[in-house]
Amino acid sequence: MATYTKAQIVERARELAKMIAETEEVDFFKRAEAQINENQKIKEMIASIKSLQKQAVNFQHYGKTEALRKVEEKIDAIQAELDGIPIVEEFKHSQIEVNDLLQLVANTISNRVTDEIIESTGGDVLRGETGSKVNNDSGSSCH
Fold first, then answer.
1. I need a labelling partner for 48 at 20 to 30 A (CA). Which of 13, 17, 31, 117 fits?
2. Where in the sequence does UniProt note compositional bias of the Polar residues kind (predicted)?
3. Percentage of the chain with pLDDT > 90?
4. Domain 40-84 belongs to what topology?
């Protein structure tokens, strides 16, 4: 069995990160973000939301519930309008796709490490038990 150093593993992780950064999903994300950053209307809407959010925090802090409700309604209205812009919808969708890819990679690594540990100890992958667990349980039975 080969053993690897943390540095070697981190280097492989960097290689994997570079591969992920060069996927269609990430490319689309970058292009959508660039279009959003170049769109003056979208920039103004985002600035308005940020400003209103600051007001909301202040209103909440000072217990001004009616003013807070009105500001939150304004935020929701601008957010709904923003979400209705096709490039914003596409950008949000691309964020989800990139996140799903990252989760898939993380879960695949995690599950494979677990399976490798179980298999290398002579355990039972289907039961998710290492060899020492299987061997210690087989000798004892509870009645």
1. 31
2. 132-143
3. 78
4. YheA-like fold (1.20.1500)
